[in-house]
């Protein structure tokens, strides 16, 4: 314990804790929307498509997160557009986008001369390499998300629940859905640092699955998800420091253990 | 009946693409305190007509005029088909009802009287004890009642119901029609249904939609009417009581 507290004295460690908290808030809010609307697969497509942006940015010598953000936002808008128009088979479109993004990313990483040292951390996450700039960007997005969900809570809830009906109440639901999908794409990109592309989606779904054990209310689901997410991130952080393993993997492992224990406990209590 | 028109549809054609027209040159007026039953075969355009009236689908041709000039000003309550809903969605019953009060305000917060109104409506439907339950705990019939509460909470001038009697048990169906007759004192009602047997005893007028719309200014569906309009229904007469008509599919 003493050692953990003294770790906080190091900037890389306190940065990691702050980044973990911010990621938990981001994933708690965006993830509740994703899970409630059953668009987990769509979010998986956006996440993996963003790898194309990382590869391209590497090749061009730009900030990989900038590339990831551009690819994520464009693919999110593309998917939202195709669902609104409903002309394309949605699941196939997502799978194509998913693999296309990964393919573009891999091609550009191979084309880039030299070795790409951070590649693994993009795929699996490395919370211990979070910089102060990362934290400022995450903080900006967190503030945006909290403000958005607080001000427009009812509108977001009702559009997610029943878009057509909400449209009859005099709202331009199409524009709102596009805005939400942009914010979700950015939330995904900002979580790459902590959880990595391959594991990130679990941060947007497992805490919500845990929350769902306790509640069926959208607002409470957000709060409970954030709490469990942060608990998982802290455990992952300590684990990755001591065992020198990728933080993303340990976070997900911890969350799934929480989920299993709670599920089993609830089941036992209900039958007795 | 009060003949003040609320909605006037003139030469409207509608469909999801210009080469697949579902409604052709429809003329139709909804009057104050009207109670119109909309019947017609599947795919005949009943739901499309509702979407046009609700402003969800832009007509390809023609125009719709509302009493207050623009769509948003006419207060319409809408009860969609229940099977379009995701019952796993984490939302409380009372929050579903309250959504009817959004009034185009994106920053909406609900006041205590508004919440009380939702609770009162739920009590009227015998659902007050479910107000804080998630919708996944409700049966199909209970969900229909929640939807009815949502549709009427804002005291609409026009209530539109898209097949409210599906998934509803026979007991509640009678109750539902009682509620509708009572609501009709205060608002016009448009009711899309397959159950023509019951509606002819509830509605005041009937419109048959099958690409074209045929308005019948009475609740009695005669064989002649159906023949003229090509409405694919089989007619069974029951003495002098409003005639019963059955779908022959």
UniProtKB/TrEMBL annotation, chain A:
Q: Name one GO cellular component term.
A: ATP-binding cassette (ABC) transporter complex
Which stretches are transmembrane?
12-34, 39-59, 65-83, 95-115, 135-157, 221-243, 249-269
Gene Ontology terms describing biological process: response to zinc ion; transmembrane transport
Compartments in which it is found: Cell membrane; Membrane
Kindly state which keywords UniProt assigns to this record, in alphabetical order.
Membrane, Transmembrane, Transmembrane helix, Transport
The family database entries (InterPro entries) matched by this protein are listed as: ABC_BtuC-like, ABC_TroCD
Q: How does it sit in the membrane?
A: Multi-pass membrane protein
Q: Which domain of life is it from?
A: Bacteria
Q: Where mainly located?
A: membrane
Family, similarity comment: Belongs to the ABC-3 integral membrane protein family.
Q: What is this protein called?
A: Metal ABC transporter permease
From TrEMBL, chain B:
Among the Pfam families in the record, one is ABC_tran
The reply to whether ATP-binding figures as a keyword in the UniProt entry is yes
- Cite the ABC transporter domain residue spans from the record: 7-238
Q: Does the keyword ATP-binding apply?
A: yes
Q: Which UniProt keywords apply?
A: ATP-binding, Nucleotide-binding, Transport
Example GO molecular function: ATP hydrolysis activity
* PROSITE patterns (alphabetical): ABC_TRANSPORTER_2
Which family does the similarity line name? Answer: Belongs to the ABC transporter superfamily.
- Which PANTHER family is this protein grouped with? METAL TRANSPORT SYSTEM ATP-BINDING PROTEIN TM_0124-RELATED
Report the protein name in the record: ATP-binding cassette domain-containing protein
Q: Which organism is it from?
A: Plebeiibacterium sediminum
């Amino acid at each position: 314990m003493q050692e953990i507290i003294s770790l906080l004295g190091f900037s890389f460690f306190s940065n990691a804790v702050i980044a973990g908290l911010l990621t938990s808030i981001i994933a708690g809010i965006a993830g509740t929307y994703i899970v409630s609307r059953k668009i987990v697969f769509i979010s998986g497509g956006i996440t993996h498509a963003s790898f194309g942006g990382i590869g391209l940015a590497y090749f061009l010598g730009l900030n990989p997160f900038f590339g990831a953000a551009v690819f994520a936002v464009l693919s999110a808008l593309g998917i939202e557009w195709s669902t609104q128009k409903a002309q394309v088979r949605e699941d196939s479109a997502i799978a194509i986008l998913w693999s296309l993004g990964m393919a573009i990313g891999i091609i550009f990483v191979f084309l880039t001369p030299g070795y790409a040292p951070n590649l693994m951390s993009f795929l699996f996450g490395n919370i211990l390499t979070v910089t102060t700039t990362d934290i400022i960007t995450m903080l900006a997005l967190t503030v945006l998300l909290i403000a958005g969900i607080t001000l427009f809570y009812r509108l977001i809830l009702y559009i997610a629940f029943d878009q057509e009906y909400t449209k009859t109440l005099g709202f331009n639901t199409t524009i709102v859905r596009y805005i939400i999908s942009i914010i979700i794409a950015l939330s995904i990109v900002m979580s790459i640092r902590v959880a990595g592309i391959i594991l990130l989606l679990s941060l947007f779904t497992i805490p919500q699955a845990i929350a769902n054990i306790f509640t069926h209310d959208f607002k409470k689901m957000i709060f409970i998800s954030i709490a469990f997410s942060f608990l998982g991130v802290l455990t992952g952080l300590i684990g990755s420091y001591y065992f020198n393993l990728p933080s993303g993997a340990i976070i997900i492992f911890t969350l799934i253990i929480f989920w299993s224990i709670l599920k089993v406990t609830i089941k036992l209590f209900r039958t007795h | 009946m009060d003949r003040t028109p609320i909605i006037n549809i003139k030469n409207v054609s509608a469909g999801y693409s210009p080469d697949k027209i579902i409604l052709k040159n429809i003329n139709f007026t909804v009057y104050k305190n009207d109670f119109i039953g909309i019947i017609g075969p599947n795919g005949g355009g009943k739901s499309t007509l509702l979407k046009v009236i609700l402003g969800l689908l832009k007509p390809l041709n023609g125009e719709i005029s509302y009493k207050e000039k623009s769509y948003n000003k006419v207060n319409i309550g809408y009860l969609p088909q229940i099977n379009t809903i995701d019952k796993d969605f984490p939302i409380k019953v009372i929050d579903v009802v309250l959504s009817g009060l959004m009034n185009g305000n994106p920053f909406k917060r609900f006041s205590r009287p508004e919440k009380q109104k939702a609770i009162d409506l739920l009590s009227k439907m015998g659902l007050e004890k479910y107000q804080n339950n998630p919708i996944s705990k409700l049966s199909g019939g209970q969900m229909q009642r929640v939807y009815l509460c949502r549709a009427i909470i804002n005291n609409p001038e026009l209530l539109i119901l898209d097949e409210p009697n599906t998934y509803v048990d026979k007991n509640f169906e009678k109750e539902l029609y009682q509620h509708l007759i009572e609501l009709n004192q205060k608002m016009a009602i448009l009711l899309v249904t397959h159950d023509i047997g019951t509606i002819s005893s509830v509605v005041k007028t009937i419109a048959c939609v099958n690409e074209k719309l045929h308005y019948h200014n009475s609740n009695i569906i005669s064989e002649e009417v159906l023949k003229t309009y090509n409405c694919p229904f089989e007619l069974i007469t029951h003495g002098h009581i409003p005639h019963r008509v059955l779908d022959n599919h």
